[in-house]
Amino acid sequence: EDQVTQSPEALRLQEGESSSLNCSYTVSGLRGLFWYRQDPGKGPEFLFTLYSAGEEKEKERLKATLTKKESFLHITAPKPEDSATYLCAARPGSSASKIIFGSGTRLSIRP
Amino acid sequence: EAGVAQSPRYKIIEKRQSVAFWCNPISGHATLYWYQQILGQGPKLLIQFQNNGVVDDSQLPKDRFSAERLKGVDSTLKIQPAKLEDSAVYLCASSKTGTDVDNEQFFGPGTRLTVL
């Protein structure tokens, strides 16, 4: 069964304290790994798509990386405005467009 | 460019009542998705439309949920009758295509449903 698991469930950091969020996936024939940001009361906002192991993408303080079994979202010197839930999703090879979401990591950055 | 619009934003109903949600996708987006997001979980796909045809409704509880996308533009999702476990946020998303290219999904703000 295709599955996406994120860890930790919640993470509290001090402003400027760098860390990484983990996304483990078991899908057959990955056709895309996605990261979204979700603020309270809002829909998910697209961040990155990764397609193959070794690929990396960056946006401001965020960098996403992909291996054959995991993806990491690295956050460097975070600010309070980076506080949000970060969702990972994977598209199985059997699907033209359906994606499977993990449960997310709630990130809180203290000033 | 206007984003995905959803209404209402909030809805409170009694169990066994009916409810309907509306979604207007980004102009020109062929693919429309309805997701259910229970508190503390990631979104779960309920149904996917490509233009006005259903691509995937394998996780839609068809005994109580229905959805349509007439004319391939806006869409409605209905629950009849509602159960307590239907309390969740219902998210609508759209993408340019349903293929590997240009398939970034844009989400609306969601409708928070509470069933009492």
Strand content of chain B: over 45%
Helix proportion of chain A: under 10%
Global mean pLDDT of chain A: 94
Main beta sheet strand tally, sense and closure of chain A: 6 strands, mixed
The tally of helices of chain B reads: 0
- Terminal CA distance of chain A reads 41 Å
How many beta-strand segments of chain A? Answer: 11
Determine the strand fraction of chain A and express it as a percent band: over 45%
Write down the overall geometry of chain A. globular
pLDDT averaged residue by residue of chain B = 93
Tell me which protein chains meet in the greatest interface and how many residues each side has: A-B, 23 and 26 residues
Order of helices and strands of chain A: EEEEEEEEEEE
Q: What's the Cα radius of gyration of chain A?
A: 13 Å
Question: Oligomerization state of this entry?
Answer: heterodimer
The Rg value of chain B, from CA coordinates, equals: 13 Å
Low-confidence stretches of chain A: none
> What profile does the largest beta sheet of chain B have?
7 strands, mixed
Q: How would the global form of chain B be characterised?
A: globular
Number of strands of chain B: 11
Descriptive report:
The complex is a heterodimer of chains A (111) and B (116). Chain A is mostly beta strands. Helices cover 0% and strands 54% of the residues of chain A. In chain A, a hairpin with a 6-residue loop joins strand 4 (33-38) and strand 5. The relative contact order of chain A is 0.34. Chain B has 116 residues and is mainly β. Helices cover 0% and strands 47% of the residues of chain B. Chain B has strands at 5-7, 10-13, 19-24, 31-37, 44-50, 53-56, 65-68, 75-79, 88-95, 106-107, 111-115. In chain B, strands 2, 4, 5, 6, 9, 10 and 11 form a seven-stranded mixed beta sheet that branches. A four-stranded antiparallel beta sheet of chain B has the order 1-3-8-7, with no helix packed on it. The termini of chain B are far apart. The model of chain B has no long low-confidence stretch (mean pLDDT 93). The chains are: A mainly beta (111), B mainly beta (116). Chain A binds chain B through residues 4, 31-32, 36, 41-46, 49, 87, 89, 95-104, and chain B through 4, 31, 40-45, 48, 55-56, 91, 93, 95, 97-100, 103-110.
